[in-house]
């Protein structure tokens, strides 16, 4: 078997998220259907991070394993490499069908110890939000939710700085059975771009379910004056202390969220990173 890393992006508007679901249009189902067409066999994808319905990805990463027979069918009589053939043919079948909202950026042969999910060091996201100060670009309105009124971005930035680090993000997560809500949030930055649109950039080792959109929701409460600047950090401090804050989450609309990048170590560290991540998951 040969392992390939595939870098791709997609507009999530018309997808019901990444993961396959019976009878629904999903990114995974589309990509695996395309892979089956070009290789002549069923291919299973492993993704760096599953995205929810309506969430976009600028730079997502998956890996696949393909046997020699499938590679032979893929390359055919051409003198192209397997990487080049897979890139060209997968782009072709997706663009020619109904999956024009998926873009294949690159295909790379990688060592078998590369794991798109477990070898990852971090994932980064950006959330775009317009308020009454923002220039409303009609080309970007489908991916930029609007907030009525004007938000205090300075207060939001101050609140964001106080919740970075290793914490229990239970107040801003939808817990899943057997999974931890402890994460390391490396970056949470709030600013206005040149058109006064609010951009919220986040980077963490991993994110639990709804964590990004719930954190953004908390910052919006700060920016609108509904919460004090210290409130998000106070809720996380309670969770760190083993308490369960009784505060309903405010989850922002999916269309403003984009997976922007996934970071990996040097190739010689793929296996060690994957082992470290899997060991931590087993302990959870």
From TrEMBL:
Q: Which organism is it from?
A: Brevibacterium spongiae
Q: Tell me how this protein assembles.
A: Homodimer.
Which NCBIfam families did the record assign? hisT_truA
Enzyme Commission number: 5.4.99.12
Catalytic reaction equation(s): uridine(38/39/40) in tRNA = pseudouridine(38/39/40) in tRNA
Q: What keywords tag this UniProt record?
A: Isomerase, tRNA processing
InterPro entries associated with the record: PsdUridine_synth_cat_dom_sf, PsdUridine_synth_TruA, PsdUridine_synth_TruA_a/b_dom, PsdUridine_synth_TruA_C, TruA/RsuA/RluB/E/F_N
Ranges where the Pseudouridine synthase I TruA alpha/beta domain occurs: 159-265
The record's annotation in CDD domains points to: PseudoU_synth_EcTruA
- Its EC top class is isomerase
Return the protein name: tRNA pseudouridine synthase A
Determine the domain of life of the protein's source: Bacteria
Which residues carry out catalysis?
Answer: 52 (nucleophile)
**Function noted in UniProt:** Formation of pseudouridine at positions 38, 39 and 40 in the anticodon stem and loop of transfer RNAs.
What Pfam families does its record include?
A: PseudoU_synth_1
């Amino acid at each position: 078997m040969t392992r390939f890393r595939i870098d791709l992006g997609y507009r999530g508007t018309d997808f019901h998220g990444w993961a396959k679901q019976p009878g629904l249009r999903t990114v995974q189902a589309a990509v695996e259907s395309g892979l089956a067409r070009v290789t002549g066999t069923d291919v299973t994808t492993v993704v760096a991070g599953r995205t929810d319905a309506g969430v976009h990805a600028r730079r997502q990463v998956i890996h696949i394993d393909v046997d020699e027979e499938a590679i032979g069918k893929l390359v055919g009589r051409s003198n192209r490499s397997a990487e080049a053939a897979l890139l060209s043919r997968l782009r072709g079948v997706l663009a020619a069908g109904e999956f024009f909202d998926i873009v294949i950026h690159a295909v790379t042969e990688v060592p078998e110890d590369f794991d798109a999910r477990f070898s990852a060091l971090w994932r980064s996201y950006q959330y775009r939000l317009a308020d009454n100060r923002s220039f409303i670009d009609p080309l970007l309105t489908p991916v930029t939710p609007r907030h009525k009124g004007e938000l205090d971005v300075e207060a939001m930035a101050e609140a964001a700085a106080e919740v970075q680090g290793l914490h229990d993000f239970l107040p801003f997560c939808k817990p899943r059975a057997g999974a931890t809500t402890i994460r390391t949030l490396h970056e949470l930055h709030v600013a206005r771009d040149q058109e006064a649109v609010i951009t919220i950039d986040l980077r963490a080792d991993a994110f639990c379910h709804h964590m990004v959109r719930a954190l953004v929701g908390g910052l919006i409460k700060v920016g609108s004056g509904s919460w004090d600047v210290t409130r998000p950090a106070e809720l996380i401090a309670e969770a760190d202390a083993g308490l369960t804050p009784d505060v309903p989450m405010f989850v922002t609309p999916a269309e403003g969220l984009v997976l922007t990048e996934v970071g990996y170590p040097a190739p010689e560290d793929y296996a060690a990173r994957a082992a470290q991540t899997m060991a931590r998951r087993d302990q959870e």
